[in-house]
Amino acid sequence: MAGGKRADRATLEALGLLKGEAPENSGETPKTPGESPARQLVEITGGTVNVRTGPGTDYAPVKIAKQGETYEAVDTDGWQAILLDGEIRWVSQKFSRALKFDENDEEIVV
To answer: Which 8-state DSSP code applies to residue 1?
Structure first.
């Protein structure tokens, strides 16, 4: 179904993406109460990059992201999920990089 494929709700729930949770078996260490989570962003490194509804080129593009723009990150394999206008959208990890920030908005080198 070229151009119109969408990630379904069950897939997003399984990845923990609907509630801002980390996917199961993500390798992340659980946070202790009171510990501030590090903020992770995705920076677009390609000149112009398609933001898609799912993780692949057969998913519909919804926006063109420009080099230097940043978005909130969600970790996945080969494709980077970002939050765009409150919805999960996707960009290729080949043309983006994840950025992490502590509670004081100081960048953590990844």
So the answer is: -
Residue in 33, 109, 101 with CA at minimum distance from that of residue 72? 101
Q: Which of 86, 85, 94, 102 is nearest to 41 (CA)?
A: 102
- Residue 54: C-alpha distances to residues 81, 84, 101, 104 (Å): 8, 13, 26, 32
**How long a stretch of residues is the chain?**
110
Per-chain mean pLDDT for the chain? 74
pLDDT confidence of residue 103: 85
Q: What is the pTM of this model?
A: 0.46
Specify the range with the lowest mean pLDDT, choosing from 22-26, 47-51, 58-62, 83-87. 22-26
Structure-token match 């723009």, residue found: 69
Per DSSP, the three-state class of 70 is strand
The region that residue 61 occupies, defined by phi over 0 for left and psi between -120 and 50 for alpha, beta otherwise, is beta
Considering only CA atoms, give the Rg of the chain: 14
